[in-house]
Amino acid sequence: MIILKLLQEIWFNHIVMNNLPVGFNHKRLLRLIKDAIDRCNLDLSDQIIFTEAATGAYVVTPIIAALAGAKKVYAITKDTPYGTIKQVINETESLANLAGISSNIEIITEKTSDIVSKADLITNSGHVRPINKEMINWMKPSVVISLMYESWEFREEDIDLDYCRKTGIKVIGVNEKHPSIDVFSFLGIMAIKQLLDAGVAVYGSKILLLCDNHFSEFIQKTLSQNGAEVYCHKQLKEAEMQINYDAIIAALKPQKNPVLSEVDLRIIAQNFSDCVIFQFWGDIDLYLCHQLNILIYPDKTIKKGHMGILPSEIGPEAIIRLQTGGLKSGSVVIKKYDIIDRKNIDYIQIV
Q1: Do residues 207 and 184 lie in contact, with contact meaning Cβ atoms separated by under 8 Å?
Q2: What is the C-alpha radius of gyration for the chain, rounded to an integer number of angstroms?
Q3: Residue 224, Cα to own-chain centre: how many angstroms?
Q4: Which of 145, 165, 213, 337 sits between 20 and 30 A of 83, alpha carbons compared?
Q5: Measured in Å, how far apart are the chain's first and last C-alpha atoms?
Q6: 265-318 pLDDT, tens per residue?
Q7: Cα distance between residue 210 and residue 203, in whole Å
Q8: Residue 15 has what pLDDT?
Q9: Phi, psi (5° rounding) for residue 70?
Q10: Is the pLDDT of residue 2 over 60?
């Protein structure tokens, strides 16, 4: 039995982990997870968690919940371009075995009423979504749904929020700027990753940052610290037209229409023909960019309302912090901490 487990670990390390940067090795993930649990004082004792099982950095969510003392963790998964069900199971079991909590986690492949109805905390994770009327009707009245991101970033397609309110189901956002979570401090590094991948060196570059939300100060600060000349505006029409920008970063809150209008794109095509447009956050009309010969990165279709770069593309740290914070925000509501308990209440945001 010991030899079999050793062979499984060798196979996993050589076949699966070789497809990931070495910083994603499971011993390091486990250390980062334990550090995050300690920072957030996350305690899920006696709670049943319904979340997702996934690959890469996103393998960590059920592991975090189980290590934080959850009585049971149901983790739903499915085949995706990022990994098959078998790969997800192997990756999750490998990390769970290393952590010594494999018996607390059950991986499932479909949402059913009997499992959803047991959950005390449900995460708004990729494989869990959509959290629709049918799924909400399965939930017990005391359940808490953790948004797993800030409340102002809410996407209507994720959760039927109106029906949650009608039925009294609590939906809670996480304060990503809380010192114990501090995910926003990774935003500037993510922007730098995009710039470098596209061949813009950052240092000495003139960068127009279009940002109408809380991301602004974090992205601008990191870019400036790395030698970029940053011009920050909420709309393109506010920007200086005489500057030869190396990059225009769109970090705009998604809306019904693209965040850069046809007029905006035509202005860019006319005035900044050698400039690269970066889709950091907010939908951009890729077809129109091509028609106008605008250089855009990433030059691919991004799922509506989603970011052009995932936090996991710079390493597992931000994901571990975010997933731990999301579980913490839900547990704070479950435990009904008094409003004067700032140490815990500051983790949550009302949706």
Answers
A1: no
A2: 21
A3: 24
A4: 145
A5: 49
A6: 999 999 999 999 999 999 999 999 999 999 999 999 999 999 999 999 999 999
A7: 19
A8: 43
A9: -55, 140
A10: no
Q: Give the mean model confidence (pLDDT) for residues 193-221.
A: 98
Mean pLDDT value of segment 328-332: 96
AA letter at 170: K
Mean pLDDT of 36-61: 97
- Token reading at 27: 């011993």
